[in-house]
Design goal:
Four Helix Bundle (Hemerythrin (Met), subunit A), mainly alpha, 4 strands, two-stranded antiparallel sheet
């Protein structure tokens, strides 16, 4: 399930970089909703996905773990192995993963999310940010 990340200073502090990058992607996605001429829903979907991945990677780095897989569902499942509080993210992220299957050439598919889907994904992104902040030192506001 996990690869051991080690507990050296580089690993232990890299969670802050991941969290900060998650923040940047999240901010871009929130601002992008108002700029439809530049940010299509497929682009917003991918930016939101990158934000969620970065937040989870910050969580894993903080806890000295490296997930083996990086689908959004698998990240939530691995986080739930650390704390059950992550379990409610599994099904919504499985649904989010269903919009793009790009890892397997025979199953390749992309579906454009609707405007309402994007708003739901942004709300999920916010919930994951709050979850990660509550399970790292980000809750103290020290992420830089």
């Amino acid at each position: 399930m996990f690869l051991e990340a080690g507990r050296g200073d580089g690993i232990m502090n890299s969670w802050k970089e991941f969290f900060s990058e998650g923040e940047q992607y999240f901010k871009t996605a929130k601002n992008g909703v108002c700029r439809k001429s530049v940010f299509t829903n497929e682009i917003l979907y991918n930016i939101i996905g990158m934000s969620i991945e970065k937040y989870f990677m910050g969580f894993f780095q903080f806890h000295g773990k490296l997930p083996e897989h990086h689908t959004l569902e698998s990240l939530a499942s691995d986080a739930a192995a650390i704390t059950e509080e992550a379990a409610p993210f599994i099904d919504p992220l499985k649904h989010m993963d269903s919009y793009q299957e790009v890892c397997h050439p025979e199953l390749f598919q992309r579906v454009a999310p609707s405007d309402d889907d994007i708003l739901e994904m942004l709300a999920l992104n916010e919930s994951i940010k709050v979850f990660v902040a509550g399970h790292t030192d980000a809750r103290a506001g020290d992420v830089r």
